[in-house]
Amino acid sequence: MAIGKPSLRIVTLLENNPYPADPRVRPHMEALAAAGYDVTVICPRGPSQIHRETINGVKIHRFHLPIPTNGTKPINYVIEFLYATVAMTLLTLWVWMYHGLDVLHYYNPPDTLFLAGILPKLAGKTIIYDLRDLAPELYQSKYERNSPTIQKLLLWLEKLTCHQADHIIVVNESYRQIIMERDGVPLQRVTVVRQGPDPDRIHPVQPSLELSGRAKTTFAYLGLMAKQDGIDHLLRALHQLDQHFDYHDWFCVLIGKADDQQGLQRLAVELDIGERIWFMGYQPVDHWVPILSAADICVEPAPANPLNEVSTMNKLMDYMAMGKPSVAYDLREHRFTAGEAALYARPNDEVDMARQFIRLINEPELRTRLGEIGRQRIMKQLAWGYQRERLLSVYAGLAKMRPV
């Protein structure tokens, strides 16, 4: 079967999010389906989801993941990843047997999904590895430890996965440079496909009434809340508004799933700001867009650590697409993403982050200007439409190398 023809069968493995909730995988799969490919996604089953369905041309096979992940315990991730790898390998073989498979496209984490690609690779199928997180840096940043044994294991898994893949997709230039240097991947086998927002879905709308009248200044955070994401930094920076700058008329909404929400809530209470923090949990796009429309200032509090220094934070681009000013620590990829659409605090300096908050609070015209800069940067450079062509070009390039 010739790759690139509408009958091409792509099987995608996604472990760390249900589909279609994952903000990176959904636009990828829908773009491939719209281009005429036969696309199947294998992923965990989320609450209230059924095991099989088709959404916008993408066929979905879900499996039950019985192990609850606790972000504070590494062993829980080990158990989850092992279970999921076995389940996804068996489902891959089932889909291959009954529906066919030409390309296996898997997203990390974890870096154990190469096991599902062993038999397809031996059978001459094409393997695409989509690298979203650098596992060695993620482990070191999330758990603030540096076990040589674990680091060597994670590096070994990354190297095996990279060498199995026919092509690797990464989220930014920093990731591409890292895997080229430490895994020996040649330039021609790596493509950068950034996670640009879709301006047709993410744009300013009528502000949500849920935040109306809560405070003069409303802050917003969007995204997962794991250790490395810096929600504790955000809470302490907000506390500094009270203590250091004597500004109290604010409210903050946190949108997304938290690994340790109870711990974060306890911290907010200890800082005496608990009544002004709203943990909303996961919200679909059509709900959080009106909420961000009501916010005055958006925040990316990810601190400086081995992972965040080289990672692209999608929430920054979502803030920019919404036309919102943002504050972030001054990290390399933060600067590359937001450019002049954000104010930057000294890395890991919560008082300086609060100082940037105060500047935006006192200068409404600056908030407007930063929001306009961000929106234009998305529309002219970073929107998903520009990135979609890169993804489709990967498949077009592989088509030329695959025998008819």
Any overview of this molecule?
The chain has 404 residues and is of the alpha/beta class. Residues 1-6 have low confidence and may be disordered. Strand 13, helix 11 (332-338) and strand 14 (342-345) form a beta-alpha-beta unit. The strands form two sheets. Strands 3-4-2-1-5-6-7-8 form an eight-stranded mixed beta sheet, with helices on both faces. It folds into two domains: 9-196 and 383-401, Glycogen Phosphorylase B (Rossmann fold), CATH 3.40.50.2000; 209-382, 3-Layer(aba) Sandwich (Rossmann fold), CATH 3.40.50. The chain has 14 helices and 14 strands. The radius of gyration is 21 Å and the shape is globular. Helix 4 packs antiparallel against helix 5.
Features of the shown structure:
404 residues; alpha/beta; Rossmann fold; 8-stranded mixed beta sheet; 6-stranded parallel beta sheet
> What's the average pLDDT?
92
CATH superfamily annotation of the largest domain: Glycogen Phosphorylase B
CATH architecture of the largest domain: 3-Layer(aba) Sandwich
Class computed from helices, strands and strand pairing: alpha/beta
What general form does the structure show?
globular
CATH fold category name of the largest domain: Rossmann fold
CATH class of the largest domain: Alpha Beta
**Strand order across the biggest sheet?**
3-4-2-1-5-6-7-8
Q: List SSEs in N-to-C order.
A: EHEEEHEHEHHEHEEHEHEHEHEHEHHH
Indicate how many domains the architecture comprises. Answer: 2
Estimated helix fraction? 40-55%
Strand content: 15-25%
Outline the low-pLDDT stretches.
1-6
What's the Cα radius of gyration?
21 Å
Q: Describe the sheet with the most strands.
A: 8 strands, mixed
Number of helices: 14
